[in-house]
């Protein structure tokens, strides 16, 4: 059997295009022309002797062969990037302090800490998971070097814009529905009102983190604009408490849909008003970062680039 030696540059184009859902966007991200990207993909299919992409509507999706290749391509690129980082940062030493919003504490933070520790074993990394306000206080007080946090409207002198993510209504996934005590949502997810059409509507129960809270403000503002009555049914200082209360059927909440437990689901209901998007920033303590903080910033941004397509999806 003929051996195939993959071109990592071609694999990076393939993975980026699939992740972004557009090879035109991938070309822009990678600093290439669309014709160059097309040539790379043709080279890949010629190597394999089978298509890795097929047309669907106006876009392209992976074939079964392409889907199989995608997982291996991610692993090859991750190993390549890790090896390059390890060689470049072999002599890197010191310490760095990172803060993250609670939405990212379980999945992204674990990945970031593992990646950083493997390639920079001589750098001591301290991490803190907290709410936005606490992270900003820690950053401005010089107790954090980097903070991945939601855009709460504060001045961001030294921040990298990571993404804007649409906010979602979140409810329980099981038989409890989303708000069984007020009848706002039927068990099949379609909206219905608890009262007769000519009677007053029962307030929608909301679950949120303690004020001040960006997501809570977005939820109540959207409901007020739509003329929908609401009440705060449960508050918690932690995101875990919010997830537990929603799973128990105490009400609905608003988040970006990141790291949802299996007991929760994104709600699609015509009776729930549309929500805005929220910005995500990587805040830096100063414009110029030292070498450990600069490397950590790169790893955080790489991790988010890998997670964001799944979040959008």
List key phrases describing it.
313 residues, 9 helices, Arc Repressor Mutant, subunit A, 3-stranded antiparallel β-sheet, 5-stranded mixed β-sheet, 3 domains, D-Maltodextrin-Binding Protein, domain 2, single chain, alpha/beta
Task: Describe the protein's architecture and organization.
The two termini are 38 Å apart. With 313 residues, the chain is of the alpha/beta class. The radius of gyration is 23 Å and the shape is globular. The protein folds into three domains: 8-87, Arc Repressor Mutant, subunit A, CATH 1.10.10; 91-164 and 279-312, Periplasmic binding protein-like II (D-Maltodextrin-Binding Protein, domain 2), CATH 3.40.190.10; 168-275, 3-Layer(aba) Sandwich (D-Maltodextrin-Binding Protein, domain 2). 40% of the residues lie in helices and 22% in strands. The strands form four sheets. It has a five-stranded mixed beta sheet with strand order 4-3-5-12-6. The chain has a three-stranded antiparallel beta sheet with strand order 10-7-11. The protein has a two-stranded antiparallel sheet with strand order 1-2. Strand 1 (53-56) and strand 2 form a beta hairpin.
Tell me the span between the first and last alpha carbons.
38 Å
**What string gives the helices and strands in order?**
HHHEEHEHEHEEEEHEHEEEH
Helix content: 40-55%
Give a quick account of the main beta sheet: strands, pairing sense, barrel closure. Answer: 5 strands, mixed
Mean pLDDT: 82
Strand content: 15-25%
Radius of gyration: 23 Å
- Would you count the extended β strands for me? 12
Name the CATH class of the largest domain.
Answer: Alpha Beta
CATH architecture of the largest domain: 3-Layer(aba) Sandwich
User: What is the total domain count?
Assistant: 3
Shape: globular
Q: Which residue ranges are poorly predicted, with pLDDT under 50 across at least 5 consecutive positions?
A: 175-182, 186-198
| Sheet/helix structural class | alpha/beta
With helices defined by DSSP (H or I, 4 residues minimum), what is the helix count?
Answer: 9
